[in-house]
Amino acid sequence: MLKIDKLCKQYNNQPVLNQVSLDMGPKISVIIGLNGSGKSTLLKVVAGIVEPDSGTVYIDRQDITALDPEERKIGYVPQHPALFNHLTALENMRYCLKNGRGSEKILDRYVEMLGLKDILTKKPRTLSGGFKSRVSLVRSLASQPKVMLLDEPLSDIDVAVKEKLLPEFKKVLKDMGIPTLYVTHDPWEASLLGDNFYAMVKGKITEINSADDAFDIIKASYNIKSSVS
Ligand SMILES: Nc1ncnc2c1ncn2[C@@H]1O[C@H](COP(=O)(O)OP(=O)(O)OP(=O)(O)O)[C@@H](O)[C@H]1O
Ligand SMILES: [Mg+2]
To answer: 2-222: what CATH class?
Structure first.
């Protein structure tokens, strides 16, 4: 379980996270928000890369707010996932296993499920964006995290490839069965992946029934009027 309780963060006296609270079981929760709404900051605070001004993060009821990122057992795929170019795809995915952490079994299972067997010996620069994303996902999952955070990991991917990848990601994340927090600015992407949906506006989040409702909340908050009547 992941519980986020009243997280606040300001930059230059501007609130970027404003009392963000979330209580998540083993589902895929998607936060939809415009550029600059605070999505990446929220994930960085949960991952331990950015310190909050106030608020608490719990995993399985343990307060982890003061723990270093590597002690949190969180898998984090950043906005522009970077792979090690001098290592093969397999070496990239086995990276955390080297230090005695993670699970070879999980790695093998998701290599199979995501059709990565034929690219294991390839170097990242020879792989398409879709394969790089799959490798980044497996690399994080192989560390056996208790929680997964994904920050628009498919933002550099073509729409057609995304349409194929998102159901694959969903299958793998559901199979892993841990709380997953995915952020995106794209309600369509959210609808293909999520179980639960939230809209994020200026550092505040609101639960919504479906990904399609995100734009209504966002437009109302920013007072944006549709040009189509
Ligand atoms: N290290 C920082 N120092 C100062 N301001 C920051 C810092 N990081 C983020 N911000 C500001 O906080 C706000 C939220 O940024 P954040 O990156 O969390 O937004 P986002 O929703 O992820 O946006 P995007 O969709 O563009 O990725 C922005 O106004 C940004 O300029
Ligand atoms: Mg971001």
So the answer is: alpha beta
